[in-house]
Amino acid sequence: MCGRGPRGSRDPAVPEVGPAGDRGKGERRSSGQPSQRLAAPRDTADLHQELCLYTLGNLIVESEAGRRQLLPQGIVPALASCIQSPHLAVLEALGYALSQLLQAKEAPKKIIPSVLASPIPEHMLRLLQPGPKLNSGVAVEFAWCLHYIICSQVNNALLITHGAVSTLGLLLLYLAGTVQSSEDAGLELLVCPVLRCLSNLLTEEAVEVGGGQVQLRDERVVVSVFILLQFLLQKHPSLLPEGLWLLNNLTANSPSVCTSLLSLDLIKPLLQLLPVSNVVSVLVLTVLCNVAEKGPAYCRHLWPGPLLPSLLDTLAFSDTEVVGQSLELLQLLFLYRPEAAQAFLQQSGLQALKRHEEEAQLQDRVHALQQTALHS
Fold first, then answer.
1. How far apart are CA 323 and CA 355, in angstroms?
2. For 119-156, what is each residue's pLDDT tens digit?
3. What is 297-358 written as a DSSP string?
4. Torsion over CA of 276, 280, 282 and 288, rounded to 10 degrees?
5. Which of 52, 104, 261, 303 would bridge with 340, disulfide CB 3.0–4.6 Å?
6. For residues 205 and 200, what is the distance between their CA atoms, to the nearest angstrom?
């Protein structure tokens, strides 16, 4: 298989997604002001709880020794109790404290198993349910919490059993509609963690067993991913790889998702992302490899069309990974559509290949593609 299979868990380190998007460890302060979106009136006890949670989160960042003391004192049960609060400001503070705890280096062995054994995961997923009650501040915090848990790979099957794939899939659809209408600017900060969570869950065998993969084969999911790709292209281009990794994992083992890409005429919009960066180019080409490897019926939709001219352009790139993935895609295309090889030769394809003949990493693939083209 030349297209990459479902990718393993993403590195928990997260790029910035805007003014409020830095997910690195660091102190945070409560404003101490009542939120206008609270579900119930606040009193002194609620404010005290909120301040305690932010202080706790900051202490967790600072001291491993402090974290060691908190665990036997019952911090996880205490947080599990707080997550049932009706006050959004308390929940957001809780999400901050929990996210700091889950990023600790000892979290996979000493913290996350306890969190998974508590009611916290079910409540997190409840707070991520799309709809009018979804609060952006709370949802962003718990989406990152979910991301850190998933990256630990401690027991993702449990999260899938709790309906994580279904919840995140619905949230993806909701976010696509939201970024189009700009109803809540705060929700755009959810895009990155939701994409990452879904991408990583798709690498789990339990998704297929539990039907999660079937749920994500819905055409609406493919459309939503492309809406979010366009949104990221305009607002946060550095995060485009997040959406493309999800698309890669969706197409890797799903002919139906590949069919949706073709039937919805989404190949051209995908190709338009090639000039953005080398990283984006490799991912776009990987997705296209996933489509092409499905066989002749799929390649008939790739050529004739804009694919071949685009690949000739990528062969002019200096990045060996981009060129290498282009060679893989061309090899698949020529295998299933020999006529495309003739068109490649007529469009000076051999000359385009010659510039890479001396590159050690590409020599074998260049030679193999030359032979395929000449003998098709």
1. 11
2. 999 999 999 999 888 999 999 999 999 999 999 999 99
3. HHHTTTTTTTHHHHHHHHTT-S-HHHHHHHHHHHHHHHHH-HHHHHHHHHTTHHHHHHTTTT
4. -100
5. 303
6. 11
